[in-house]
Amino acid sequence: MNSADIATIKSLLATPQNIVIIPHKNPDGDAIGSCLGLSKFLDCLGQNSTVVAPNDYPKFLKWIPGNEEILNFERENSQSKRLIEEATLIFTLDFNHLSRTGQMESYLEAASADFIMIDHHQQPSDYARVTYSDVSMSSTCEMVYNFIDSLDGVSKISKDIATCLYVGIMTDTGSFKYASTTSQTHRVVAQLIDKGAENMQIHQQVFDNNSPARLHLLGVALNNLVILEKYKTAYITMSQDELDKHNYSKGDTEGFVNYGLTLDGIIFAVIFIENKEEGIIKISFRSIGDFSANEFAREHFNGGGHTNAAGGRSDFNMEETTERFIELLKNYQKQLNS
C-alpha cells in the first residue's frame, strides 16, 4: 500500500466503525483465514467487526479460531443484510469484483459504507475507496499481514491471528511449493510461527481429516483422469451422480485438480465438476510455467484467477464441455509444447 492509502485507513480506523468483512462465494482457506485474521486484529483496535460469508465452506476450515462467529448469508440472511446496511466500513478480501459474492452482490452495491479491498487476483474493479491489490503476492493472508504491519500492528498479532493467517498462506501456496512463494513469504510465516502458529497441527487439521467417502471419491476422480499427451494436458471429470454416490460434502474435491500436474510432462490440469443445482459445470484450471490458466479461463469459460490457478464455468453438459475444451486445446498446442 502507498502512504496515501495507509493514511486513509488510519483515519477511517481512528474512530469506532461498524465493520463487515466479506470473503468470496465458496470461500477457501485463504479467504476464511484472511477474514478471521483481519477481524481479530480489528477487534484489538477496539473496532466492531463481523465476517459475513456468502455461503457455506468446507468442514476442514471450521476449526479455525473465530469460525463460530462467521455469519452465513444464506442461512442468516436477515441479520447479514442488516449488518451490511448498517456498516460504515466494508472490507472485501480475496476477490476483486462484487459479482464473486453471488447473491450478496446487489446488497453490497447498495451499501453506503466505504470499501477497502485486499486481494491478489488479476484485473481488480474500482468499487473500493482503498484498493490494496498485488498479483505478485502468495495469498491474501500475506497481504493482511502486510496491512497489519503498515498500521504498526505486528505486536498485536496473537496466536489466533497468526493461526488464521498461516492457514491461508499454507493453502494458497500449495504448502509453499507454488512460484508465488517468495523469501518474504517465508519470513512472514516465520513471524507467524514465532507468534504462536503451530505449523504441524495446522497442516494436520487442514489436510489430514479426510472422511472415507472423500478418499473413495478421490479414487473415482483418478479413475476418470484423461491424459492428452500431445497437449501436455490432463483432465478429470466428476458427474453429479458420482458425487452423490459418495456422499459429497462441500470441499471434498478440493485439490483433486492438482493430481494432474504430478504427472511427468503435464503442464496443464483441469477438473470438470457437474453441479445440477446450479445447472453448470464448475471448472478448475492449474498450470505450470508460462502457460496462463487465468487467460484460458477468462477467454473461454467465464472465469479467471491467477496465472497458474483459475476457475471457470460452462453452461453446457459434461460431454459438450469436454469436447469444446479438447477442441480449444488445438489452438494452444504450440504454447503448451514450447
From TrEMBL:
Annotated InterPro entries: DDH_dom (IPR001667), DHH_sf (IPR038763), DHHA1_dom (IPR003156), Oligoribo/pAp-PDE_c-di-AMP_PDE (IPR051319)
The DHHA1 domain, residue ranges: 238-333
Record has Transit peptide as a keyword: no
Keyword line: Hydrolase
Catalytic activity, EC: 3.1.3.7
PANTHER family in the cross-refs: BIFUNCTIONAL OLIGORIBONUCLEASE AND PAP PHOSPHATASE NRNA
Protein's UniProt name: Bifunctional oligoribonuclease/PAP phosphatase NrnA
Organism: Croceitalea vernalis
